[in-house]
Design goal:
Elements lengths: L1 H49 L3 H9 L5 H22 L5 H29 L8 H9 L1 H10 L1 H31 L33 H4 L29 H26 L5 H27 L4 H20 L6 H28 L14 H16 L6 H22 L5 H22 L5 H41 L3 H6 L1 H29 L3 H25 L2 H5 L4 H9 L6
Helix pairs in contact: 2-3, 3-4, 3-6, 4-5, 4-6, 4-7, 6-7, 7-10, 9-10, 9-11, 10-12, 11-12, 11-13, 12-14, 13-14, 13-15, 14-15, 15-16, 16-18, 16-19, 18-19, 19-21
Pfam families: Vps52_C, Vps52_CC
Family: Belongs to the VPS52 family.
Keywords: Golgi apparatus, Protein transport, Transport
Length: about 600
């Protein structure tokens, strides 16, 4: 019995050991399982990333590049190439198994893509090609260049150089041809150094020869030329072979050329930044390599035009066009043309300022004594100045220029001086005043019509006009009512000095004035009315001055009545009779 129990005890001890052993094995298997499960995710992902499938090999080798499937397989290939590069740094041995096949697929993909992109670039070289079509096709597959850029930099550089070389020639030949064809549409008659503000029409060419321009006022009058800055700013460009019978002013041709350039340049800049993955200074450098020759050609053309140009308005309009097109480019997020715009402004602005100074000098040198036209109406210099300054002031409100504003003020001063010298040619003061009022009035009307009310020029002429108008009114009343006016002035002085006794002594004089006034006042008003309307071609100005004169006359009359003695007052014409008569001269202007 004892021996049996000992055997059981031994058996139970071995069973216990087995249970402990099984427990240890269970724990080990559990750890192995969790390790394998932990490894399963990364390992399957690794295998998926590194294994080259049959679909990938077939897609890269046999599917055409424009097919959507090729784009999908190319993206997978790019991902695997990047993954293998990453694993090589970690010295992963599995990379050696797929490296060769991936390299071969990369070479094949690069070759197919290179052929396709170069084919698109060569399409630009075809005559009359619309290069927006191949550009749009290239943008659709812009990932191709991205793939080449990250895997074969030499091929990427080759494609980039080929594109630059092709597009540079395309743009240069297009703009060279377009500019030369536009040049043939230019007006044959252009202003010369003899067509300045102070030079009289036909003065240089003798009796039979008129100025080279049919009408010199067109040089200083804007007319509809300012439309290039408004509704024509973004109008379709001029097509030379369609409009070969039409002639244009220089700024209209300049607008068409620059608008074509803005359109092409903005599209080109945005294309190169998107397709070639460049920005900042690299984008600017690439843009300059493509359009540099073209821009130099256009600057050279403007420089050649400017050398012989005496058309202030053309230069001024071109400068304003540049300011507006620069702003348009910035709105499209393209600042690549800024240096080109600066070059053009550096050419046009000094020339404009030089011609403005020539015009100012011509007004300064103009001798009124030698002029053939000595009428009291608006002078040709005033008319030219008014039209020209109104044009420049109204069109430069958006982009003012301080130097040009100063030159305009200098021109205004010279015109003021000239008008005073010209007025001095008339013997009578009233003639001088008529001349000055007519000229100031015309300038003011043109300035007020086309510019803001508060310009320095308008304010200056307004002050001059008011001062001369007041003086004119006194002058026009004086021949007819001079005695009455003088009596009022003397009487008021005596009243101020408190010399009423002396005022009473003037009764005899006042009676004679009353008698002469009673007999002639109606006729005098009629003569004043006729004289004013004849003197001023602008009916509004004439009627305004007439009303001003009649108002002054009524004021003098009221004062005259107050100064008279009761005896003299009884012989006077009633003020109501005079007012009824004055109403006859009221106008509807």
């Amino acid at each position: 019995m004892e021996s049996m129990l000992l055997v059981f005890q031994n058996d139970l001890g071995s069973i216990s050991n087995e249970i402990i052993s099984l427990q240890k094995r269970s724990v080990n298997m559990s750890v192995q399982l969790s390790n394998r499960q932990a490894l399963k995710g990364p390992l399957s992902s690794f295998i998926e990333d590194i294994v080259v499938s049959e679909t990938l090999i077939f897609g890269i080798n046999n599917v055409p590049v424009v097919d959507k499937e090729f784009m999908i397989q190319l993206a997978i290939l790019n991902q695997k190439l990047n993954f293998v590069k990453e694993q090589e740094f970690k010295e992963t041995k599995a990379c050696h198994d797929v490296k060769d096949i991936l390299e071969k697929l990369k070479i094949k993909a690069v070759a197919k893509i290179r052929t396709y992109i170069l084919e698109q670039i060569y399409k630009f070289r075809k005559p009359m090609a619309n290069y927006q079509i191949p550009q749009n096709a290239m943008l659709k597959y812009k990932f191709f260049f991205e793939f080449i850029l990250s895997n074969e930099r030499n091929v990427a550089q080759e494609i980039c150089n080929e594109y630059i070389d092709t597009l540079s020639k395309v743009y240069y030949s297009y703009f060279k041809s377009y500019a030369s064809r536009l040049d043939k549409l230019k007006y044959e008659e252009v202003p010369t150094k003899d067509d300045l503000m102070g030079i009289e029409d036909g003065s240089k060419g003798g009796f039979f020869q008129k100025s080279n321009l049919k009408n010199k006022s067109t040089i200083f009058t804007i007319g509809n030329r300012g439309d290039v800055l408004a509704q024509q700013l973004e109008a379709p460009i001029i097509v030379p072979h369609v409009q070969q019978k039409t002639k244009y002013s220089y700024e209209a041709l300049f607008r068409s050329l620059q608008y074509a350039l803005v359109d092409n340049s903005c599209r080109e800049y945005l294309f190169t930044t998107e397709f070639f993955h460049v920005k900042g200074s690299h984008a600017q450098e690439l843009f300059d390599r493509i359009l540099g020759r073209t821009l130099s050609l256009l600057v050279k053309n403007v420089e050649n035009y400017v050398l012989e140009c005496y058309d202030c308005l053309a230069l001024f309009l071109c400068i304003q066009l540049i300011n507006r097109y620069r702003w348009m480019c910035h709105k499209r997020a393209v600042a690549a043309l800024d240096s080109y715009w600066d070059s053009l402004l550096g050419t046009l602005t000094p020339r404009l300022e030089y011609i403005l100074k020539l015009n100012i000098q011509s007004v300064r040198d103009c001798d009124p004594a030698k002029l053939s036209n000595k009428e009291m109406g608006p002078h040709y210099i005033t008319r030219r100045y008014a039209e020209f300054s109104a044009a420049m002031l109204s069109l430069s409100e958006q982009f003012p220029n301080e130097e040009q504003s100063n030159l305009l003020l200098a021109m205004q001063d010279e015109v003021h001086c000239f008008l005073l010298k010209m007025a001095a040619e008339f013997p009578q003061r009233i003639q001088q005043l008529i001349f000055l009022i007519n000229n100031y009035d015309m300038v003011l009307n043109i300035l007020m019509e086309r510019t803001r009310d508060n310009t320095k020029e308008a304010e200056s002429f307004k002050e001059q006009l008011q001062a001369r108008s007041s003086e004119y009114v006194e002058e026009i009343l004086s021949p007819h009512f001079g005695g009455l006016m003088q009596f009022v002035k003397e009487g008021e002085q005596l009243l101020e000095s408190d010399k009423k006794n002396e005022l009473a002594n003037l009764e005899k004089k006042s009676l004679s004035l009353v008698t002469s006034f009673t007999t002639s006042w109606k006729q005098s008003l009629e003569e004043i009315h006729r004289e004013v309307l004849v003197s001023f071609p602008n009916l509004v100005t004439g009627s305004g001055l007439l009303q001003m004169a009649l108002t002054n006359f009524v004021q003098y009359y009221h004062k005259f009545v107050k100064l008279l003695t009761p005896n003299a007052r009884t012989q006077l014409v009633n003020i109501h009779v005079i007012m009824v008569e004055i109403k006859k001269y009221k106008t509807n202007y």
